User: What shape does this take?
Amino acid sequence: MPIKMDPEIESYLVGSIRRFFAEELEADIGDLKALSVLDFFTREIGPSVYNQAISDAQASMERAVSDLAGANYEPEFDFWKKR
Assistant: This one.
């Protein structure tokens, strides 16, 4: 499934890539090359980052759900015990 970005985000990222190339690599690139770099990283690296994020979220949710009994336990039938 291809990643679709908001046009404003894509525009920001293209600018960021151009700045990175200029400041860190001392190379000026245009919008088309920056967009190609963004497309490459989105298609090549994006799925790995996405899959790891889903795995991390799943593990976090499983920890939270497994602790529900302890986190939300209320003693039952204790009205008369407190008197």
